[in-house]
């Protein structure tokens, strides 16, 4: 059972998302929060697997709360929800440690699927968000300290490039003619070598280093 906390400053939205997620047999909404400070308290108390977080909240916004969660509760993955498909904070939210990003007009089924994917360690970006992120990464390419990239083997570099293109482990395995478990092993080793928390940070690293344009 995947434990979930939902944070949003609008009561109707908060309870609506919580009800949708709680309706799934494999998801359990163990807490809700109306601002970033309440979110931190809920996560510390309930130890959820996933926190579904609105970006724009009072007291402590979603970005600041995400950064705190990444530092203090790294086992809890963050799925950001926002009304704004051109939100200037998308990039910062992912850099803060979010594992996914969806717009609030998402369907209930897609929201449930998103929480499942993030809980499983996958990267999740809504289609309308992806183009903006790619543009931002392209502008910032080459600005990141690329220490660690030179420690990757040729195969690990291939896997990193496929991850940066948004492909799943199964798709990478098919593309590179290797097994799913081998891909998982490579991804784990790449995360270790680059000091990244998850696949989202791997994508950011690849774009910032100029590996993908």
Describe the structure.
A 6-stranded parallel β-sheet has the order 2-1-3-4-5-6, sandwiched between helices. Helix content is 52%, strand content 14%. It folds into 2 domains: 2-136, Rossmann fold, CATH 3.40.50.2300; 141-208, Arc Repressor Mutant, subunit A, CATH 1.10.10.10. By secondary structure, the chain is α/β, with parallel strands linked by helices. The chain contains 10 helices and 6 strands; from the N terminus they run βαβαβαβαβαβααααα. The protein has helices at 11-22, 36-46, 62-72, 90-96, 108-119, 127-140, 154-164, 169-176, 180-194, 199-208, and strands spanning 2-7, 27-33, 50-54, 77-82, 100-103, 124-125. Helix 2 packs parallel to helix 3 (62-72), helix 7 (154-164) crosses helix 9 and helix 7 crosses helix 10.
What's a quick, concise take on this entry?
This protein is α/β, with parallel strands linked by helices.
Blueprint (SSEs and pairs):
Blueprint: E1 2-7, H1 11-22, E2 27-33, H2 36-46, E3 50-54, H3 62-72, E4 77-82, H4 90-96, E5 100-103, H5 108-119, E6 124-125, H6 127-140, H7 154-164, H8 169-176, H9 180-194, H10 199-208
Parallel strand pairs: 1-2, 1-3, 3-4, 4-5, 5-6
Helix pairs in contact: 2-3, 3-4, 7-9, 7-10, 8-9
């Amino acid at each position: 059972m995947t434990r979930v906390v939902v944070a949003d400053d609008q009561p109707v939205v908060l309870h609506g998302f919580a009800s949708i997620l709680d309706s799934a047999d494999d998801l359990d909404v163990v807490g809700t929060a109306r601002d970033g400070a309440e979110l931190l308290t809920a996560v510390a108390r309930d130890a959820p697997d996933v926190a579904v977080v609105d970006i724009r909240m009072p007291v402590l916004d979603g970005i600041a709360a995400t950064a705190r969660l990444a530092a203090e509760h790294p086992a809890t993955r963050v799925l950001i929800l926002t009304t704004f498909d051109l939100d200037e904070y998308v990039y910062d939210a992912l850099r803060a440690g979010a594992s996914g990003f969806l717009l609030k007009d998402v369907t209930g089924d897609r929201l449930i699927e998103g929480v499942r994917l993030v809980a499983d360690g996958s990267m999740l970006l809504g289609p309308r968000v992806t183009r903006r992120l790619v543009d931002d990464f392209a502008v910032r390419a080459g600005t990141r300290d690329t220490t660690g990239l030179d420690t990757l083997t040729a195969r690990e570099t291939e896997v990193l490039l496929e991850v940066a293109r948004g492909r799943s482990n199964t798709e990478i395995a098919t593309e590179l003619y290797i097994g799913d478990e081998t891909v998982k092993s490579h991804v784990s080793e790449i995360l270790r070598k680059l000091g990244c928390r998850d696949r989202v940070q791997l994508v950011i690293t690849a774009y910032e280093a100029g590996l993908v344009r």
